[in-house]
Amino acid sequence: MIAILQWTTFAVCALVAIARIPSALRRENRSIFGVFVLSTVAILLSIDVSYQSIDAWLGSENYTNLILRFVVYGTVLLAGYRIAKAFDGPRSIRLIVGPVGKSVLTGVGIATVILFLLADTEGTATGLKTLPARSPQNAALIESYAAVGRLYPAYVAACILPATFVAISRPLPKTIRIGALLLTVAFAAMAFGSFYPLIPSEAGFLEYVINYTSVLCLALGLAFVWISSLMAKRALRMHP
Amino acid sequence: MPLPAKAFQHWLHVVAPSASTADICRLSGIKRTTLAQQLVRGKVAESTLVSISRALKRSPLADLAAFESYADLAGRPQPPTPAELVSQIATMDLLRAVISRSAPAYGGYGDDGSALTPALGAAPHATSVRNWVDAIDDGELRHRVSDATGVAPQNYSAQLTANRLSPELAVATARAAGVGFTGGLVATGLLTEAEAGWPPEAKQAALDALSDGELTVLAGERLQALGKTLRRQEHEQEQTKKIWENLG
User: pTM (2 decimals)?
Assistant: First the structure.
């Protein structure tokens, strides 16, 4: 079940990234192309099979997980900034790329690296699942590392959420409103990420579902808006 | 509520006993699937009846009145008030009247206007529904309609903004305002002015009866409302463009 969700999300992101290559070559909105490439990479780095092989190549110290964190930060920053600009949320833009946003990102970045280096991370473990069991100290370090990793996406998501939410009920073209709805779902799921510790451990699969739903909705939402713009351009060409 | 299918089929049998469904559809230009769907659901749209009645060269108003929910339409219809008539004049026609009445220096013909001024366009126009309701509203009308029909005020307003009103609500509005029942049916485009029994010169006469001041204030209000609508559309277009520029 989770594997299906993971591979579907991977396929969607990869397909849209490939489909956007021509427009990226024409220098149209390369950052959105970047969002899709980065999310494809991020998913590849989090799926068990690919994680194992990549981490083995990198020395089996779980540096892959550290790279994954920063790929996620990059994706969220790029997507968040573009989406806030598109949906005209000056406050969201300021909170993401303004001084507050920069310090949150810097703080999260430094904390991520320090906590990772302090923890014992020997031996490939997808999602660092087996590492906390080694010692109480390692458990605390890995848990804080994971919490910090969820903090930045949650912060950016909370900043944009109002802008995309308002757009759902605006009198805009239907495809854009569907896109806004999907993006709102994606950011709501992302913002919910900070509350994972509240989920009982028996329902741990929920974390996967929420994570991948969020990426899937983000990709689909962006794809929807993109397709609607292509349709509008075509309509303009046919009836200039 | 639309017309019950049973009563509709009974009516159809009376007015066109020998015609098949296919004949009726061909004559009236209604798609066969549309009619079949309405009959299956048990509710036939008023516009379907009007199209058929027109095609058979009958009076749509009288035919509508044959149904229980439109029994009010029977008999001699109460004529529209001057305000209702003026509300069915398109905004651009009102502005043309303002210019036409202005001094020759501004391209007009003076107070009496001229035969050269183009004739008024036929109702309905782009904002005819809202203008009609505004013309008969005493300030409490929307609440009374809502109380009488159970339709929420915001749904009612949404219909007005979209320049739509179901025939049932149009009649209920007229009843709540105490005016003739044909005004709403003309404003929504269900009936033409002639089918509603309005004299051909009625709108022009109502317009001519307005003083320069009344006409100018009315045209100004219409222009302001039009400006608001256009601004809103432009704003939406700008937003759409911005979204496409950033994410497209």
Answer: 0.73
